[in-house]
Predict the 3D structure of the following.
Amino acid sequence: MEYKTAASNETILIIDDQNSIRTSLRLYLEDYGYTVDTAENGKIGIEKFNKIKPDLVILDIRMPVMSGTEVLEILHIESPATPVIVISGTGLIKDCISALQNGAQDFIMKPLIDMSLFLHRVKKVLCTARIKREHKKYQINLENTLKQIQLDEETAKRIQLKLLPEENQNIHDFNLSFHFMPSRCLSGDFVDYVNVDENHIVFYSADVSGHGISSALVTVLLKGFMKMHFENYNHLKIDTILKPDQLLNALNRELLAENLEKHITLFYGVIDISKSLLKYGYAGQYPFPVIWEHGKCEFIKGKGFPIGLFPYAEYEVYEKKLSDNFRLSVFSDGIIDILEQQNNKDKIAFLKTLQSDELLNNFVNQLMRHEPFPDDVTILTITRGQDNG
């Protein structure tokens, strides 16, 4: 696995009492474009750390004057965001455990025989640290966004609309589009889709309980959560974003931990382009999404608790083989409230008639004449090989 690196902009500090180790590691890392400084003991190492503020510290655990353990404790308190790789020639498991407990990101035993493996681990630790910094910046921006949302609804509306994807987007041979109709200035509904890599498209439709600012706040948090997992995949190849069950489980834990007294119903899908396969997860979504293929219409069914209600909730992965010509629509439950049919059975049957862009757009245009809506309404549509006129 290759990790993206910005070697020319990154500085590494090597603290080791063996001159041969310091020199060989410095020369090796400099060959790969890193700026490297060295220190022969922990005391000098701390002084240099405070002066150059390196992006990574490579630290020997057993040294005179000041041990690596003491250095690690100081760094963990004064600069916990700086990653540390500990190296040791003792071979003692207790040294490894102690180092990791005190904040080290990795532990490598001497002698360093496989230098390519060493470089790989350096890149991985630096890449992880960069992702954490980016997440921190994004979190700060997110907190500022939430504060803006709480100030007034008009500002909040502009922010929320900016978080939505392009209304009509072609990704490979798929077309993704949506209709977004809030019942008020702000919406508890949210949709998104993203081309994760050359072989995967991720999409989801979410409905936060309630209305107004409090529900809009949760949609912003949801967008941040998804962005974090996209970045984890893009930079670290952590593929949670491609596994609906794992992602929904992680989102459930996240929302419960936030203690916002809100829950989310959600349909989460991953299209594997090479296999023409849809993998999806359910979190209380209603009504079921509708798919039209080969002149037939069926519901994509599943089960799962809403996100943020139950700590014991576990989510499943479902699969659906996709044809070369299909149309898939995901409706938020607000659509049930505005349909004119007398019962849910007839309302659901009506949704099955919206099998083209023309029919769907005509329906949406009719809906817009009856604003305001009693509930938020969102329709997410994905097509391939369709003549949607």
Notes: The CA atoms of residues 183 and 197 lie 35 Å apart. The chain has eleven helices and 16 strands.
